[in-house]
């Protein structure tokens, strides 16, 4: 290559060189972005010696880091020849980190696997089926059957269990008891009372609102909960299993009523509410009611104390029946690429055992998967958890199972339609058009799923 | 004499009085503007800018559960919690290491590359410049899997070295372009004069050119530091050990799927922001000079 001092070379044939550089750049970019992996992570792994080091990725790192470290310390005490390395990963980034590791290698031995992300990981062949291990385990028959079935159903259609359940979450209606008492309102146990209270508690001049609606990230699941709760429709699919009930006229009517709350009884800023903003403004302001799940209970206790609020299951419909949409069951899975599956399974067994499961869920405020843990005394003291556990087990509540098994579910229920829900709130799109759009996508995704499953 | 007579006997006609230059008029009009016309918009802008910072300070300094609009009684509990319990002491050290190493590597390599682009002509120079510009259009996320595989092959996953290399590589194109423009602005004759005085090329560069590049070096170095300090993606993906993670990744873990400790999050945000604010406070003069001088000359 000829190199000369600037200004003393005339630079011949530059057009040709530019074209060559563009072509070279394009080739380099395409080469750099190409993936050379079959997507199966880093091989089939091995059972290993049952001792040594294993790596555990927590799918909800941060707030639960302390309790996981406590469980790990207990495990290492009971199994001194196994060393568990804990890695806490924020829930928002967990899926992309695991997906990258599936493609590029570097998966851990054990990872938190909730129902909402199970289908994607299982479809990529990254997870070890756990049915046989569970059958031979002390956990057999001790774990909540509904949670197991929920995870099995979410796993990709091959009827295998890829994640051992640890916890269930549930939708909760939090309300400010002090504001309700002052206004002389009854507890919002029915949808009619809910709407009545939302209006009566609102005084915009005093910056006081009856409700805070979720208009930003995560809005669709909450809207679905309100829709199915009011309409009383108990299944996400019709009798043929091919058409969703999401745009049923009863649901359309319910969504219209729910969306009409925006700005009428809620702050205008709710349009961009994700759970963080929604919980923060409920904890620090004067807002009568909030729909969220068990996970934020401790935040409310810290901010308001236990005297000023209650967390109850969703309101019941006009016929006295409660219908709620499912919350993803959380669990722990074993990655196929693990070179130490024996030790990894020992850790999973320990983490899902009665003692550890109880300890973990007491800290997380969620419903334990282990039957013995679910009977522990702390549950009676954590009112929302107890009410949620009762609602999930006493037959009073019908759970509409959301289709977590559809690979497109996360895209349809988030990126594709959350902006449209904001349009509904602003009155730029009708509830019917919004739900028809979702239904069309869901029906297509289900048809594709049916075709793939034969 | 003739010249003198000619000049004295025939005075030149008076030159036309040039119109006063426009910038002077604009400056006068600006000077005469009522103060409130300047300070009111600035004040409104400042309020909008500072309120979010005040809010972060408020949450970080008031006790959990307080709804007071002033951080009183004041507590440092949130800072203690994130610094010790949540591992921010370690994250901070790691971020400093990544930031400083990226700063030095980027500046050093960009200086050498920038000098070559400014002072030499070679066959694929235009194409190379085009490739540098095109590389700015490729988002880091797109290259994540290939980079992950490369670092895995090199046994560098879970090493701060992988993050430092990735950050440096992504900083280099813009830094090289900026520094090459700076070097072009230094007259070539200065280097030639140094050669005549007996310097070789490297010494001439070090003694004559390098001192004149200070604004550019500060701009490029600070930009590399701040970018790597704030960058989240590479640290998240390439580092698996909790003890190796950086501040942005640590901040992210303060928000769980359905619960958030706002006091801790605000305290973590302040810890993350302080170094960047300090860096900008010290270098803003050179930074503005650096970017304007490097950006518009080509």
Structural overview:
The complex is a heterodimer of chains A (454) and B (298). Chain A is an alpha/beta fold and 454 residues long. Chain A is built from 19 helices and 13 strands. In chain A, the strands form three sheets. In chain A, strands 3-2-4-11-5-12 form a six-stranded mixed beta sheet, with helices on both faces. Chain A has a four-stranded mixed beta sheet with strand order 7-8-6-9. In chain A, helix 9 (219-231) packs across helix 10. Chain B is mainly alpha-helical. Chain B has one domain (77-296): MetI-like fold. Chain B has helices spanning 2-9, 22-32, 35-61, 77-85, 88-119, 125-135, 144-153, 160-185, 188-196, 201-209, 214-230, 233-238, 247-252, 262-296; one strand spanning 120-122. In chain B, helix 5 runs parallel beside helix 8 (160-185) and helix 6 (125-135) packs across helix 8 (160-185). At the A-B interface, strand 1, helix 1, strand 3, helix 3 and helix 11 of A face strand 1, helix 6 and helix 7 of B. Strand 1 of chain A pairs antiparallel with strand 1 (120-122) of chain B, so a sheet runs across the interface.
What structural class results from the helix and strand content of chain A? alpha/beta
Number of helices of chain B: 14
Top CATH class of chain B: Mainly Alpha
- The N- and C-terminal alpha carbons of chain B lie at a distance of 52 Å
Radius of gyration of chain A: 25 Å
Give the class-level CATH name of the largest domain in chain A.
Answer: Alpha Beta
Radius of gyration of chain B: 27 Å
The proportion of residues forming helix of chain B, as a percent range, comes to over 70%
Region (Disordered) (chain B): 1-24
Domain ABC transmembrane type-1 (chain B): 92-283
Transmembrane segments (chain B): 36-61, 96-118, 130-148, 160-183, 204-229, 262-283
Biased composition (Pro residues) (chain B): 12-23
